[in-house]
Design goal:
Helices cover about 30% and strands about 20% of the residues. Strand 6, helix 3 and strand 7 form a beta-alpha-beta unit. The two termini are about 45 Å apart.
Length: about 425
């Protein structure tokens, strides 16, 4: 290969380098978007902002109501409602494509235990994801079904951009299933859980003691003969719970189970999130006092078992009034699109609009350590512009941004509708 300097004059080389630098800097400078004249539901103490401007830069919310606007793209909201992107939870989105087809199911395995990391099988190209975006969802907490162990594995956090790097956190929480059993006793599993936590706490205390002895010996110039044992994978995970690094996410309904979990939370200082919690209203005061988050299905109003005799459409409102942090979820993986409708029903049954919004945005983000769920400076720019009230059936998503990038809400269902309704010279339903 000939030397470039030998084939180009100096002036031409300088011009080429200048053009390359300019081209590179174009990509280095992030595009800025300004959403103006919006009715902003912030999900913060600021409440609702009217005729507000939100600036997006580098995937973050860079400013709200700046004194001047300089942006590459300006979107005039024309008074429409701008909300944080909604966050789904407690489903198998991206792990199950067709529930009736076993080869498309990756959410469970007979041998799965506390170490199960189902994020390895997450499919960001699932056709369910664009459909979920149509409901205003921009992120999701995916939960595996696990196996025969009471520990079902790790929940993990994803954004719904459909990109191959959309898994945000592979180990957001440890998932546990307690309560009524077809075989065996709930008492045995509660006892096993308590024993596991107790054994791990004792082992951690011994490790801390050895570390202190080793440090003391080093300070004295001596060599400590105490060697620490390497913890196993499951022990590392239990230790992370005891050290408050991640929450324990537990399926449980009956009040006695909830009280047993509250006792363990107090004893080991756990971050506890209870899912289902049909009897939660009976122990709402205790849940609030110990800062236990509860994940509910707002449409669950009939007993499904003897563990769930006290569930009602008012549960979300009553628990929120008692001071409990509530998250609303939809259990149907293929229909988490309906999350906003469930929140709307919770509003119809006593929950305020602000609390309903928080239950599918800020509360989820806080519980799973996500930098989203609010419209405030420094948060990830997961935003949705709505045609009207997002909790009304007739409203739809006008525009959506995930980490600052505008994404489409066109789904496979839209493509099918277009295919079958568009007039064409081809025979009806024919496709190339």
């Amino acid at each position: 290969m000939r030397n470039l300097k030998q084939t180009l004059p100096v002036k031409s080389l300088t011009l080429l380098l200048t053009m390359v630098c300019a081209y590179t800097s174009t990509f280095a400078n992030a595009q800025t978007t300004a959403i103006t004249n919006a009715t902003v539901y912030t999900a913060t103490d600021q409440g609702t902002l009217n005729n507000a401007t939100v600036i997006i830069e580098n995937g973050k919310i860079a400013a709200i109501n700046p004194t001047s606007i300089t942006a590459d793209t300006i979107v005039d909201a024309k008074g429409k409602i701008l909300t944080p992107g909604f966050i789904g939870s407690m489903n198998q989105l991206g792990l199950v494509e067709v529930g009736a087809v076993s080869r498309t199911r990756d959410a469970s395995d007979k041998k799965a235990d506390i170490t199960f990391d189902a994020s390895l099988a997450f499919n960001p190209q699932s056709t369910v994801i664009p459909y979920s975006r149509k409901g205003g969802l921009t992120r999701n907490i995916v939960t595996p079904r696990g196996g025969e162990s009471m520990f079902k594995g790790h929940a993990f956090a994803v954004n719904l951009s459909a990109s191959f790097n959309s898994v945000m956190d592979t180990k957001s929480a440890v998932l546990l299933d307690l309560g009524a059993k077809s075989k065996g006793s709930r008492a045995f599993e509660l006892q096993m859980l308590g024993n596991k936590l107790e054994d791990a706490a004792k082992k951690l205390a011994k490790l801390d003691e050895k570390a202190a002895d080793k440090k003391a010996a080093k300070d004295e110039g001596k060599q400590s003969d105490k060697k620490g044992d390497e913890p196993k994978r499951d022990e590392i995970i239990i230790n992370s719970l005891l050290e408050g690094e991640k929450p324990l996410l537990v399926y449980a309904d009956r009040a006695t189970d909830l009280l047993a979990l509250i006792k363990l939370k107090k004893q080991y200082n756990l971050k506890l999130i209870i899912v289902g919690a049909a009897d939660a209203e009976l122990v709402g005061e205790q849940l609030a006092k110990e800062n236990v988050t509860v994940i509910l299905n707002a449409m669950r109003n009939l007993p499904g078992s003897f563990d769930s005799l006290h569930t009602s459409l008012n549960s979300a409102a009553n628990l929120t009034a008692a001071g409990v942090k509530v998250i609303l979820s939809v259990n149907d993986t293929h229909n988490i699109y309906q999350l906003r409708f469930n929140a709307g029903n919770a509003i119809a049954n006593g929950l305020s609009t602000e609390d309903a919004l928080a239950s599918i945005t800020a509360n989820v983000a806080d519980s799973f350590a996500l930098n989203t769920g609010r419209i405030a400076t420094g948060y990830d720019a997961d935003l949705v512009l709505w045609s009207a009230d997002p909790f009304e059936l007739s409203s739809k998503v006008d525009k959506m941004w995930i980490i600052g990038e505008e994404v489409s809400t066109q789904s496979r269902q839209d493509a099918l509708r277009h295919r079958y309704t568009t007039k064409s010279a081809m025979p009806r339903a024919y496709t190339k």
